Amino acid sequence: MVKAGGLFMPVDKKDLEPFIKEALIKAKKRNFLESVDLTINFKGLDMKKPENRIEADLALPNQVRRSPKICVIATGDLAVAAKEAGVNLVLGKEDLEKFGVNKKEARKVAAENDFFIAQADLMPLVGRFLGPSIAPKGKMPKPGTGIITPGTNIKSIIEKLSKTVRINMKKDPIVHVKIGDREMSEGHLAENAAAIINFIEGKLERGKQNIKSVFVKTTMGEPVKIEIGGVKK
Q1: Domains of the chain, start order
Q2: Which of 22, 93, 206, 213 has an alpha carbon 20 to 30 Å from 155's alpha carbon atom?
Q3: How distant is the alpha carbon of residue 30 from its chain centre?
Q4: Full-prediction pTM beyond 0.90?
């Protein structure tokens, strides 16, 4: 994304495809499915200022996780629907109350799940018993995808979360984000990467000028520096 006359000119996915292709070619074949990750380093940001700390869940154009680990906190029909949808874990009111005593188990649940979805009327208990473990990780249920009511289509939420990444820049001027896996097409990976870069640059004080460098790599592959608009970032 480039600022021109006060407006943003978004990065085009086609500009990113050659670098993603290079990263995939350089990565050796592994006996597991590697993720493809984007790293953005920033400069000229005072991280003590709240406006320079970016924390957001961003829905991308394409799937990022094939099977996101989702914990649903619900009762009745919503709990049944969650189990039928095959989520990683379903918790009820009694389970939440147990976390008040067993904080170690609460931390384990927080670590083992990517996203948390909670029934609206259970949110006070979620905040009280599970909040201390999931809030610092940015995993508290949020309106839109994380807080549900009777009649909510859980399967559609799961589909959306499979395309959602968490952007978290609180302390250090750097962001690491998964954009997919190496079995995805270069075009889909590039589209996801462009969406992330454009979103983040739009949040920065000086846009492009606050970006020091951008890299793409597979889990164990060699990082490839991305050039945008002929300028090495």
Answers
A1: 2-63+164-232 (3.30.190.20), 70-161 (3.40.50.790)
A2: 93
A3: 24
A4: no
